Structures are given as structure tokens and as C-alpha cells.
Amino acid sequence: MISSKMLKLTQSGGAIRAMFEEGNRLAAEFGRENVFDFSLGNPNFPPPDAVKTAITDVLSEYSPNEIHGYMSNAGFVPVRAAVAEFLNKKHGTCFGADNIIMTVGAAGGLNAALKTLLDPGDEVITFAPYFVEYGNYVDNYDGRLVVVPPNIPSFQPDARALAAAVTRKTKAVIINSPNNPTGAVYTEASIKDIAAVLEQKQKEYGAPIYLLSDEPYRELAYDGAAVPYITKYYGNTLVCYSWSKSLSLPGERIGYLAVSPEAEDAALIFDAASIATRVIGFVNAPSLMQLAVARCLDEKVDVAAYDANRRALYDGLTARGFKCAFPEGAFYMWVQAPGGDDRAFAAAAKKYNILVVPGTSFACPGYVRIAYCIDKATVERSMDGFSKLAAEYGLTV
Ligand code: PLP
Q1: Does the beta carbon of 250 sit less than 6 angstroms from any atom of ligand 1?
Q2: Are residues 54 and 139 in the same domain?
Q3: Three-class SS of residue 9?
Q4: Which of 124, 168, 247, 263 lies in disulfide reach of 243, CB 3.0 to 4.6 Å?
């Protein structure tokens, strides 16, 4: 028999993945062009050309042993040094190569960080709505995820609610900005408030509380929205970065964990997180991708294309009476479910071959997430179905 934890996971399934499979089923039945699959955050736009050039250059410039061999668990030193230098130039930080661990995406970084920090029973706080895998990642290391209720309607993290949630057992807090699923970008004021609460609680309990900044969407911010760099506001910060979205490389599994040089036990955390990467079973981040992304640090996907989708979807939905905040970042629209029942609304949308994810999957019922990382023509063609949905729910503008 498999473990009871895994049995539970196989039985509950993953709502988002289930939607994705449903999309494939509908596409087989009705044709891909007649299915409006807004379920998964799988980037539709291609990586910048520089990525392909970097990969081919690396393959021709290095020997196979250099590219494909085992290496130190933290990754290639020159790659880590290049990442550190890039961050320092961009954000005025003081990272060195020994603050950077190359990881298997942000998911790998979060797992390495949690493996490094958690003892069984330790608590990790996050803010609803949140990326559903956080619960699984924390559970991997026998921690307990504590969820701060959603701060409606701004969806900024609520520092007062955070203060109420911190206990002696709190080891870490996970934040995610630009946010999946709301598209909110946390303001500098919000970050300062969180930092103040954590500073005060650290003093009160005489123990560090680490802030894990999950940043796969850092480069996807619109209208010049500033995305504050967290290490500048709070010393005990670990940044979990990924190129999954910024370079459209989610299948390549490449990112890094940056340990603030000001973090308590920074050197020990670096050593432990490097070992964590190994003992979790990743061993090291994909080697070819490490070498390739180091040459693409200034590159990003066509953010304007996401922006065009954002505007088309927002204008289309609000013109039909749906209520949603204009997202400031990432590629998700967070829409109030008409009638208040997100699951019923997602089921109703499916009748028109529109796939959206109920907010319940993010610990925030009453909303649905619409991922607009798909081509614009699909967004436009979906509007007919959204009109029918609006009529079904009696929406007016
Ligand atoms: N964190 C958030 C908020 C995400 O949305 C995702 C992926 O969608 C991840 C982490 C995992 O990203 P990666 O592909 O870099 O592991």
C-alpha cells in the first residue's frame, strides 16, 4: 500500500491539473480552437530568441563533460556569480556566489528552503489566496501551513492579520508578488508592514522568522508597477526565483534560491540548502539550463503580449458585467464568481467550453482564476461564451 499522505493526494487530485486534463478532453471532442482553456499558468509565448542562441552557443563552446557532468550541488560557480552580480546591479544588493543556489525552478527553491528551515511541527504562514502547492511543500517536511484569510478587495497582505497568526512555532512566512492567483503586486507599504511585524515578533520570541519570497512572476509587472526587492526591507529573506515564466521555460526547471547575506545563519543556510537540493533528490539544477540562463539575465518574454491579453480580457469581462480587479502583474485575472459560488460558476463556464479554476483551490471561495497566458485570438473568441455566461447569471453593466 502507498503512504497515507500520498493516498490522500491521489484521492483529492489537483483541481488545476484536473482542469488541464479536462481541457485536453474537450479539445479532442470539439477541436482545440473551440476550447477556451484558462486553467493552467503554462506560458503560451515563446522564449526570447536569445535563449535558443545561448543554448546552441553553450553546446558548441563547452565540452560535453563540462556541460553534462555532476557539479557542486549549488550549481556552477560562474553562473551563481553572474546571478549575484546581476541582482546587485539591478537592486543595489550585496549578493555573492555563495548566496545563490541554482534550483529546479521556484518549486525546487521553495522545497530546498523549507527542507533547510523546518523541524517537524514548525509553522509556515502564507496569505490566502495562495498557490496551492505551498501546503504540499510544507507538508513534505512535516511543517504546518497556517493561512491568513484573504484581504478583500485589495488582496494586499494584511500585516495585522499576520501579527495575529505568528506564534512561537512560526519559522517562515511565504509571500508571492506579483501574485498567483490575484495578479496583485505587493506595495512597498505592504512589504514594510510585514517586515515591521516580523522584526517585532522575532524580538518577542528571540528567534528568527524567515521570509520566503516566491518570485516566478517578478518580471511580469505592467504599467511600470514597482515590485519591491524584499531583501532590502527584511534581513531574514530567502528569494525563490524562477525563469519558468520570465523566459517561458517551465519545463526546463530552472531557478535559484538567493539567501540574503544579512540573514541570520546565512552561510549555514547556504550550506544546508545546497545539501537539501541533493538529499531531496534533485542533486543539482539542470546544467545546460544553468549555463544558458546565465547568458540571458537581461532577457524576458514579450510582456507587452501578456499586457494586450490582460486589457482584452479585462475590457471584455467588465463590459459584460463581471467584476474583477485590473491585474498589476503575473498573468491571472481574479474574477468574482457571479452568485458567489465559484465551483458552480466554473461548472457553468464549462458548458461554453470555458475552463477557469475555482477560488476554493486557492483557499478563497467566491472567485475564479482566469489564466490569460494564452494567445489573444483565444481570449477574443471566448467572449461569445462569456456573453452567454453573463446572460445566464443575469449580469448587467
Ligand atoms: N510559485 C507560484 C506562485 C507559481 O505560480 C508557480 C508556478 O506556477 C511556482 C511557484 C512554481 O514555479 P516553477 O515552475 O518555477 O517551479
Answers
A1: yes
A2: yes
A3: helix
A4: 247
Domain, as residue range, for 345: 4-48+301-392
Count of the separate structural domains present in the chain = 2
The span from the CA of 266 to the CA of 279, in Å, is 20
216 lines ligand 1 (CB under 6 A): yes
Same domain, 143 and 281: yes
CATH number of the CATH domain containing 256: 3.40.640.10
Burial 243-275 (b: 16+ CB within 10 A, else e): bbbbbbbbebbbbbbbbbbebeebeebbbbbbe
Please indicate whether residue 41, judged by its CB atom, sits closer than 6 Å to ligand 1: yes
Measured from the CB, is residue 47 less than 6 Å from ligand 1? no
Contact predicate 145/126, CB 8 Å: yes
131 and 173 part of one domain: yes
Closest atom of ligand 1 relative to the 130 alpha carbon: 3
Q: How close is the Cα of 216 to the center of ligand 1, in Å? A: 6
Asked if residue 277 and residue 201 are part of one domain, the reply reads yes
Where does the pLDDT of residue 18 fall: very low under 50, low under 70, confident under 90, or very high at 90 and above? confident
What is the Cα–Cα distance from 84 to 78, expressed in whole angstroms? 10
Domain co-membership, 40 together with 57: no
Looking at the fold, whether 198 and 261 belong to one and the same domain comes out as yes
Residue-wise pLDDT for 329-350, tens only, equals 999 999 999 999 999 999 999 9
CATH number at residue 367: 3.90.1150.10
Does the beta carbon of 214 sit less than 6 angstroms from any atom of ligand 1?
yes
Question: Are residues 215 and 100 part of one domain?
Answer: yes
Does any domain span residue 263?
A: yes
Q: Say whether both 55 and 150 belong to one domain.
A: yes
Residues 6+ apart with CB under 8 A from 251: none
Determine if ligand 1 sits within 6 Å of the CB of residue 109: no
pLDDT single digits (tens) 305-323: 999 999 999 999 999 999 9
Nearest to 95 by CA among 275, 231, 293, 276: 231
Written as one letter, the residue type at 278 is R
Whole-model pTM above 0.90? yes
